[in-house]
Amino acid sequence: MPETEEGRRPRIALTTYYQEGSWGVWNATAAIVPGAYVEGVARAGGTPVLLPPVGTDPEVLDLVDGLVVIGGVDVDPQFYGAEPHVRTSSQPSRDEHDIALTRRALDMELPLFAICRGAQILNVALGGTLIQHLPDINPAAAQYQPEPGRYGTVRFDTEPGSRCAELLGSSAESPCYHHQALDRVADGLLVTARAQDGTVEAVETATGGWTLGVQFHPEENRQDVRLFDGFVSAAREYALRRQIGR
């Protein structure tokens, strides 16, 4: 496997939550990333670098080799021109941060892996819209978020020739936890996986760098590391190209 400069591991930035957390005897606002994301990056050979939504500077991405936009609360509908649904819960400051980083990563053709909310951020950043509460239009979609704190399971089919199909094959399944989904898919994105009910499960860019947005939660399936391996491999190649170009 080729190595980056001086054999270093690819540096992978991850967005974070910014909310109440606890450690030791303390409870206070904290930058938080569920361990499954950082473990997925590290297991695939990357070095995690956390980017909390405070002091946002998209140019920090010049220092890394890839970006993971992690899951979390709903994207505020103000960012795609809609009124909020009663079930929509958002953190606009985090949205601004994640959208800014996503757009910068796309401009740079930096490898980008957008997970659950991250896939929705990717779509919104490029001008797409979201379904704010899937069960309103498909009662069976409640399976994607069975109850608070418990993941559902989604099975999906991939598009032949897509990045998703290359990594996962013609079909796969994954843990999932969402009540929203992509509605109008942004120009520049291709749908490359769908659930049986038609829910968009993966999108990719048709041109530019390595970009994959997934509606499901691959980090929660420790037995299937193919997407993280594919992403970190792309980040390693990106770092090598940048090194050669100096």
Protein model, in words:
The protein is of the alpha/beta class and 246 residues long. It is 24% helix and 27% strand. The chain has five helices and 13 strands. It has helices at 35-43, 92-108, 117-125, 163-168, 226-244, and strands at 11-15, 17-23, 26-32, 47-51, 66-69, 112-115, 130-131, 152-158, 171-176, 181-182, 189-195, 200-205, 211-214. The strands form three sheets. A nine-stranded mixed beta sheet has the order 4-1-5-6-13-12-11-8-9, sandwiched between helices. Helix 2 (92-108) crosses helix 3 (117-125). It is globular. It starts with 10 loop residues before the first strand and ends with a helix.
Summarize the structure.
About 25% of the residues lie in helices and about 25% in strands. The protein has five helices and 13 strands.
Describe the secondary structure blueprint for this structure.
Elements (H helix, E strand, L loop, with lengths): L10 E5 L1 E7 L2 E7 L2 H9 L3 E5 L14 E4 L22 H17 L3 E4 L1 H9 L4 E2 L20 E7 L4 H6 L2 E6 L4 E2 L6 E7 L4 E6 L5 E4 L11 H19 L2
Parallel strand pairs: 1-4, 1-5, 5-6, 6-13
Antiparallel strand pairs: 2-3, 7-10, 8-9, 8-11, 11-12, 12-13
- By secondary-structure content and strand pairing, the structural class works out as alpha/beta
In what range is the share of β-strand residues? 25-35%
Overall 3D geometry? globular
Biggest sheet, strands in spatial order? 4-1-5-6-13-12-11-8-9
Mean pLDDT: 95
Main beta-sheet annotation: 9 strands, mixed
**How large is the count of helical segments?**
5
